[in-house]
Design brief:
single chain; alpha/beta; 60s Ribosomal Protein L30, Chain: A; fumarase; four-stranded mixed β-sheet; 32% helix
């Protein structure tokens, strides 16, 4: 009988979460590198270059790949022959490991978990509790799979109860375009088929933790219907032309993973959960000999890639930029931003909207007139850092506030990740504003452009407080111009036609 000690569980969970915060899985790095090398879309290629450079920087500096360090999901397979040397419950041991990982002084991770989700939405402060699934199985070990799942990709989870005669492929192809780019492609699609509604969702999440091996499957050929589906969905989703960061290109998904389970004759439950460019998961086994050891990868596993904005990039001084200057920016154009910007995301926007509803003014020191707002919730700094990893959050969540912000504050532009919805695009066009896109999944790289940081309002909101950043040469892409043209519409449409062999139109139809 194996004895599993309490401290070994806690230490193993904490170590694994620290490990995955800064080390991408080797198979993911290899898959993105291969996609980068074959990519023909310059915008998508540039985005993947930034993702790979950021990944290597994080491995070297042991700092988070993404500012969204995720909500922790843990799958435990506990052997029936295990004996516990513990005073805490298994859930409490796991959560103590999470707590230690996220408050580690050398690599503080962002606490994103909110208690009372339908009410006050108070931050727990240490990213607990984790979402824990336990299974008792034959054996005398404890097998652990854990992931730190980003909110942007989790928000794009989909479920459908199809009829038994319906096509799963058709549902996926109809659904993926509705997910936009907020899940930070290129990534992995985890698909769960069968069981019941909740079983399908759990299977999809488990599938996200599997290794990338689609090319090996293609070489050996499928041996089951699920494997045939993997290959068909992989090919046909990539033919959609969505591309890295939704900018249009050859690679949208790096792999499609499927898990299935017997289901009722009347049902065909299907769940789909994407894993983003900050894919983070680990697998280890506790056998009673001590904490798990995860071997650091070699830096040789990362490609030697350099990237710069190029001679065509336009340098912008945020402190002097005018509305007339903004009106000259073109969709897809690369900008290098320098100067001061304010930050704000969901909670800050809600609080500002509430102030306006009560007829109250913005807090002292908060002036958005002719300025830019960056949708970000940064990681706390460590050592001599000005700020921790500070990549963009999904902009569409701020769409409902955009018209009010532009009309009532004089805001000139916004910076985030992924596309904007029709409501926001209309507001941008009506107010002659602009939306700029930073690369999701390159948070540590982006943070190196931030020279100073200070909280100017709503300090109680933690990572969602309003900061003022001073940046130097922060790279962004013009995603929606002052006329309302969006690269997230034009890019994928162009590359879908290219992939299908349809001549690309250069003039409006």
């Amino acid at each position: 009988m194996t004895t599993i000690r309490q401290d070994d569980v806690i230490q193993s969970v904490a170590d694994a979460l620290q490990y995955i915060s800064y080390y991408h899985p080797k198979d993911f790095v290899q898959a993105v590198t291969a996609a980068y090398e074959r990519e023909e879309s310059q915008a998508a290629r540039d985005a993947m270059a930034q993702i790979l450079i950021n990944s290597r920087m994080c491995a070297e500096g042991r700092r988070p790949i993404c500012q969204d360090t995720g909500i922790v999901t843990v799958f435990l397979r506990i052997g029936m022959g295990v004996r516990w040397d513990a005073t805490m419950s298994v859930e409490d041991m796991v959560n103590e490991g999470v707590r230690r990982a996220y408050t580690h002084q050398d690599n503080v991770l962002r606490a994103s978990v909110l208690q009372d989700p339908a009410g006050a939405r108070r931050n727990s402060g240490d990213n607990t509790p984790a979402v824990i699934h336990m299974e008792v199985v034959p054996g005398d070990t404890v097998e652990v799979e854990l992931a730190a799942k980003g909110g942007g990709s989790e928000a794009k989870a989909k479920f459908a109860m199809l009829n038994p005669s319906d096509s799963i492929v058709d549902w996926v192809l109809k659904t993926v375009p509705t997910m936009g780019a907020g899940w930070c492609p290129p990534g992995i699609l985890g698909i769960g088929i069968g069981g019941t509604a909740e079983k399908a969702m759990v299977q999809a999440k488990e599938a996200c933790m599997e290794s990338i091996d689609i090319h090996e499957l293609r070489e050996r050929g499928p041996s089951s219907k699920a494997e045939e589906l993997r290959l068909e969905i992989f090919d046909r989703v990539n033919e959609l032309g969505i591309g890295a960061q939704g900018l249009g290109g050859l690679t949208t998904v790096l792999d499609v993973k499927i898990k299935d389970y017997p289901t009722h004759a009347a049902n065909l439950p299907v769940a789909m959960i994407p894993n983003c460019a900050a894919t983070r998961h680990a697998h280890f086994v506790l056998d009673g000999t001590g904490p798990a050891e995860l071997t650091p990868p070699s830096l040789d596993d990362w490609p030697e890639i350099t990237w710069d904005a190029g001679d065509s990039a336009r340098r912008v001084n945020l402190d002097t930029v005018t509305r007339e200057e903004v009106a000259s920016w073109q969709p897809g154009e690369t900008l290098l931003l320098s100067g001061k910007m304010l930050t704000g995301r969901d909670a800050a926007h809600k609080r500002i909207a509430d102030l306006f509803a009560r007829g109250e003014a913005l807090p002292e020191g908060v002036d958005f007139n002719n300025r830019f707002i960056y949708y970000v919730g940064p990681v706390d700094p460590v050592r001599d850092e000005v700020v921790g990893p500070a990549g963009p959050t999904t902009a569409t969540r701020m769409d409902k506030f955009t018209g009010q912000m532009l009309e009532r504050t004089g805001l000139l532009g916004m910076i985030g990740k992924a596309e904007r919805g029709p409501e926001a695009v209309q507001a941008i066009r009506d107010n002659q504003a602009v939306y700029l896109m930073a690369v999701g999944g390159a948070a540590y790289l982006v943070s190196k452009a931030i020279r100073t940081s200070r909280v100017v309002a709503f300090e109680d909101l933690g990572m969602e407080a309003i900061h003022e950043f001073e940046v130097e040469d922060m790279p962004v892409t013009v995603a929606v111009d002052a006329a309302g043209q969006s690269v997230h519409d034009t890019g994928p449409r162009e590359w879908r036609d290219r992939i299908a062999g349809i001549p690309v139109r250069t003039e409006p139809a």
